[in-house]
Amino acid sequence: MRSQATLSQPIRVHGTGLHSGRSVEVLLHPAGIYQGISFFRRDTATTIPAVAEEAGKLDYATSLGAPGRDVGTVEHLLSAAAGLGLTNLVVEVDGPEMPILDGSALPWVRALQRAGVVHQAARIPVWRPTRTLSLTGPGGKHIEIRPSQDLRVTYSIDFPSQVIGRQSITLVVTPDVYLRHVAPARTFGFLADYEQMKSKGLARGASADNCIVVGDDRVENGDLRFPDEFVRHKVLDLLGDLALVGQPVAGHIVASRAGHALHVQLAQAIREEAARSGMLVPAGIDSSWAAAGR
Ligand SMILES: [Zn+2]
Questions:
Q1: Rounded to two decimals, what is the model's pTM?
Q2: 189 and 212 in contact (C-beta within 8 Å)?
Q3: How close is the Cα of 211 to the center of ligand 1, in Å?
């Protein structure tokens, strides 16, 4: 069990959507116990719980909700919230995409810390696997979660790019490790793909200020924050997508060449496993569930 936590006051964040290029305003609100994390799209008056069943488009970024009422690029904020141990939060956004900020989770962490994280008078169970859950995707993509006392991530990537190549990292994810070794890692994009993505209506807000620009043989926009910043960003994305379990998780996640689709499939598999064993915490309910003594 772990303390539930929310913000002590609302906070406003402004930025630009990476794919839409639109200016976006986000209001992060405190939420009551057992409310979980949810998104509220102000322009369509739609509430979307941040759980794996709500996942929509998963190419390039994670979106939640039905087409036309969805919110895209939710994973960096969710990663920051999970990294700080926030369990209850309402994310009000005035359009279809979260702002990209600097491409990492650090500006979200700073905003959440500025608002203040407060513990609440209720606990939430940590889900732990009793057996290994394993999923594979096309092209040698693989992800699994094995029993482990703490939350541990081993991530490996292998890109056909001399700038990235093979990178692998193992981290025991504590708040301190998250803040120092994961949150600052920025998303990345290949210069060679940029025009093609723009023609598909993507990456309209991309700039040298919000992603690592990967050229043929070098990073085009300054120094990396870590020599292995690319694989660290994959860990950041994974932790954001894993927040779609809707409750904290402890286990050893081993991911190889995975991405949003496989991350979200794992979150979904965990929710199904938790539901089978009566351990799933339903989102958006309060006293009746808590009174049952879980
Ligand atoms: Zn990302």
A1: 0.95
A2: yes
A3: 9
Q: Tell me the CATH number of domain 2-126, given options 3.40.50.2020, 3.40.605.10, 3.30.230.20, 3.40.120.10.
A: 3.30.230.20
Element (H, E) at 156: strand 151-158
Task: Dig out the tokens for 29 from the structure.
Answer: 């609100």
The answer to whether the CB of 204 falls within 8 A of the CB of 73 is no
Residues annotated as catalytic are: 260
Distance 61 CA to ligand 1 centre (A): 7
What is the distance in A from the centroid of ligand 1 to the CA of 66? 21
Percent of the chain with pLDDT over 70: 96
b or e along 229-262 (b: 16 or more beta carbons within 10 Å of the residue's beta carbon)? Answer: bbbbbbbbbbbbbbbbbbbbbbbbbbbbbbbbbb
Cα–ligand 1 centroid distance for 115 (angstroms): 23
Computed over every residue of the chain, the mean pLDDT equals: 93
